Amino acid sequence: MSRDRGKNQGGKGRSVEGRTSGRGLKTRVKTAGRRSVSSVRWLERQLNDPYVAEAKKRGYRSRAAFKLIHLDEKFHFLKPGARIVDLGAAPGGWAQIAAEKVLKGGKGKIIGIDLLPVEPVPGVKIIALDFMDESAPRRLKEMLAGPADIVLSDMAASATGHAPTDHLKIMALAEAALEFARDVLATGGTFVAKVLQGGATQNLLAQLKQDFTSVRHVKPAASRKDSAEIYVVAQGFRGSGQNAER
To answer: Who wins on pLDDT, 9 or 24?
Structure first.
């Protein structure tokens, strides 16, 4: 359930967050030894992605950090002092951005979970555990010790190569994340989740519209054009009756 890891740069001086990156030349990789054609294509894409070099330059753990940056620039939900749960936290890029934005003056709280172990992020507590394990919600609630302002889910299941199956798997994760969010969000809270474009997405959006005053979906600039991933951003949680307003 981890996010994509970093990539390198290339292209014709494309801009990342208002800055020009790239050498103006496209890096090509030769097929050598046991390297397959698919491996070569993946490596070339890595080497020619401007967000990879920028992530490395800024010390972010993956290019996915820019997805959260773009979402926050559009919807402004990462506020100083916020309490956040990060689902699918590895390798820690989203936790880094959240920490920069919300951990101010000793206020704010960020907890995360992932199947994979995550190198420590200053100010953030992350456990290595499958979110779909029945003990996970309880563990997270104990760590949170109160309502959350934001639940982030960048979880992704291992791809099978069969598009309908992969779609259903990631939607199951998004729905599980929503169920958890309903249980921990404070009134007015925000839920952000990665999904794949497809019919089942409409079912999730319908559920979200019952619980939130604003529901939008967007493809961040840092999300690859050939990827079917989009993000739903639901704001203004109406409350479950269990969580008090903060």
So the answer is: 24
The structure tokens 């002092």 sit at 81
What are the catalytic residues? 194
Mutual angle of helices 199-211 and 163-184, in 10-degree steps: 10
Q: Give the number of domains in the chain.
A: 2
Let me know whether 156 and 210 are in one domain.
yes
Instruction: Report the candidate in 210, 208, 200 with the shortest Cα–Cα distance to residue 234.
Output: 208
Q: Strand 212-218 and strand 229-237: pairing?
A: antiparallel
**What are φ and ψ of residue 107, in 5° steps?**
-105, 165
Q: 119 near 92, Cβ under 8 Å?
A: yes
Assess whether 120 and 45 both reside in one domain: no
User: Tokens 């014709």 correspond to what residue?
Assistant: 12
DSSP state of 222: T
Give CA–CA dist 9/44, Å, rounded.
Answer: 10
Strand, helix or coil at 149?
strand
Q: How many CA atoms lie within 13 A of 98 on its CB side?
A: 30
CA 215, 94, 172, 131 dihedral sign is negative
For the stretch 88-116, pLDDT in tens is 999 999 999 999 999 999 999 999 999 99
For residue 96, what are its two tokens? Answer: 């880094």
